[in-house]
Amino acid sequence: xxxxxxxxxxxxxxxxxxxxxxxxxxxxxxxxxxxxxxxxxxxxxxxxxxxxxxxxxxxxxxxxxxxxxxxxxxxxxxxxxxxxxxxxxxxxxxxxxxxxxxxxxxxxxxxxxxxxxxxxxxxxxxxxxxxxxxxxxxxxxxxxxxxxxxxxxxxxxxxxxxxxxxxxxxxxxxxxxxxxxxxxxxxxxxxxxxxxxxxxxxxxxxxxxxxxxxxxxxxxxxxxxx
Length: 226
Description:
This protein has helices spanning 12-33, 40-47, 51-54, 61-85, 92-104, 107-118, 126-150, 156-177, 181-189, 200-224. The chain is an all-alpha fold. Helix 5 packs antiparallel against helix 10 (200-224).
């Protein structure tokens, strides 16, 4: 896009539209190339503005992607809660599958989950971090409530631990599952390296099921001894 066509947004509505265009461009580039590969210059070029003009709307590339991470938390939360609601009471595998299914279907969100603590939160203002954390706090509260409605043995702390495990593993597994093309070709060509090929959804489902089975068994055992 020709950057000479860019005109600075003057009204609040125009500013919101310009911010939305920047976020949309960053999302598209991130999905195509991976978050780490996308620069501020790339995003500016995609929306037809100079980098210096883009900085009027966002302080850093990390702020852009942190905003996208918050938006994805807000999109994922009701989708996950709806899936959890379909599980039977006491169905640890069903709850785990809901996490695995909804996370594995959101590859860029998994990428963002891995990037957020490593670098996105480290190059933004304190206020930007605060706003992001408030979004995630509300999301975690809603999801933990949905989980405990199906698995009442879990404490609130258990639910928070489940959230931490699910999101951190999803972020890590997605990184492992999406190597560069040359490394991916190596894995396919050498059977000794087949273990490095990760299928995110079933692995995440297995590990979360094991975690939930262990927690609920422990809670039931403790209750029976009272």
